[in-house]
Amino acid sequence: MEFLGSASDASCITRARRRQAYDDSTEFKSKNLHAERRRRQKLSDRLLTLRSLVPIITNMNKASIIEDAITYVEVLQRDVKILSDQLLEMESTSEEKEIPIRIDDQINNAADDQEMKTNGIEEDVEVTKINGKKLWMKIVFEKKRSRFTKLLEAMTYLGFEMTDTNVTTFKGAILVSASVERTYEDTLEVQETKELIQQIIRSI
To answer: In this protein, which residues make up the domain named BHLH (predicted)?
Structure first.
């Protein structure tokens, strides 16, 4: 009888250990499952955000969204380079312009600011409506190194697409005029767009 009791106890212990091992394994799998779900949800949220920023999505699957986003960024980078090159070309040939300007690799920002004030020029943003989705903007701001490039980057980041862009530098200031569209919105409000551009100018 004592032997049977010992065998029964051993069997109970074995079953208990197996149950504990099963419970531990189940808990581990459950934690992994929750972690994987969180990871997938985070990835899904990021893809949704990316999709909202890219104007043209050829397909709604993950690979297409990422590929379209890469293509869009490359297009924007090319546009920024083209406009930056245009500005540099204008500065390098400034002596041929009707309005003479001084271009120096070591631009004195304080001098430019003083030059603007001396000539009665103030930073300004004008926005008018062309149609429901397109506006015309004219911006005057102080000429500082890389400021025009930062303006383009900020406008692009906020979803604006600039076309028919014209850039002029004069008397310590930069004048930028362009048609503007916001790629993921059907309409553009004049006042809202003006305030956004003013915020960009103050921050760069």
So the answer is: 27-76
